[in-house]
Amino acid sequence: MSPTALKQQITHLISELTTCYELCATIPSTRKLGSTHTSFDGLYTSLPLTIQTISAKSATLRKVIGSRMDLGDETSRNVFTRAIRDVQTDIQPRLRNIAHPLPRDRRSGEQQVPGFKDILRQITAMEFDVCDALESLSLRLQASRSTPVPTSTSVPPYTSAPYKANTSQPVNEPNPQTPRTRKPRDGDEVLVNIKELTQLLEHLKASWVEYSSEGRKYYVNAFDKTTTWERPEGGFVQSMPREREREREIRRSTTVREERPRRDERERERIWEDGRGW
C-alpha cells in the first residue's frame, strides 16, 4: 500500500467534485431552468464550499498530526472509498444527464424534474462523513502517539548461587503492635477532599485584589490573574495596604468620638453619687 493512500483518495474525491461543479456550470446553457431555481442555485454555490472545506480540513490536520495523516487507516480509507464511489456512480451521471440531455428527450418536450435538492442533500451528507472521518483519524493518531510503546528487553538467564546466611547483623523483625507510619508531609501540604477543593476554587474565583496605577484603581481576580475589573460587585476584595490603614484609622477615630461622651457621662454620675454635685 502506498504511504500516501489517504492523501491520494482526498485528491481523487476533490477532482470528482470539481467535475460535478463544471457540469453544474454547463446546465444553464444547455437546459431551460424555471423562473425560480433555488435548488440549482443552492447546489451550484455549495459545491465550491464543499471542496474548500474538505481541502482545508485535511491540510490543517496534516500540519497538526504530520505525515501519518497521508496514510490514514482502514476506517478512514473506507469512508473515502464509499464517497468517491457515490460521486462517480450516482451524482455525476445525474448531473451529466441534466447538462447533456439526449435528443429524444428534447423532442419529447416533457418537463422532467432534475432533482437538484436531492443531489445537494447527498453532497452535504458526504461532506459531513468525510470531515468526521478525518477528525476521528486525527484523534486516533494522537492517542496512539501518547500511548507508550513497550520495548522488548532481554532478560538474563537465571543462575542459582549458593545461599550464605548473614549472621553478622541481627534481622529486625517487624513488630505487629507498632502502627504503620506514614511519610511526613511538608509543612505547606494540606490534605483536602474534592468538595473542599471545589469550595476553595469558588472562593478564589470570587476574590479580588485591589491595585492602583496612575491614580486609577483596578481589581485583579485571585484565581485568574488575566481577569481585571473596574469594581467587582460582591465577592471578597483585598484593599491596598494604605487603604486598609486608612479604614482602620477612620474606625478608630469614630470609636474614640463615640466613647468620649460616654466617659463624661459616667464621670458626672460618679460625682453626683459622691455628693459633690449641686
UniProtKB/TrEMBL annotation:
In Swiss-Prot or TrEMBL terms, this protein is called WW domain-containing protein
Q: Which CDD domains match?
A: WW (cd00201)
> What SMART domains does the database record attribute to this sequence?
WW
Q: Where is the composition biased (Low complexity)?
A: 143-163
Q: Which InterPro entries match?
A: WW_dom, WW_dom_sf
Q: Say which species the protein is native to.
A: Hymenoscyphus fraxineus
Highest taxon, organism lineage: Eukaryota
Region of interest (Disordered), residue spans: 142-188, 240-278
For bias type Polar residues, the affected ranges are: 165-179
- Location of the WW domain: 202-234
Pfam families the record matches: WW
Comp. bias regions, Basic and acidic residues: 241-278
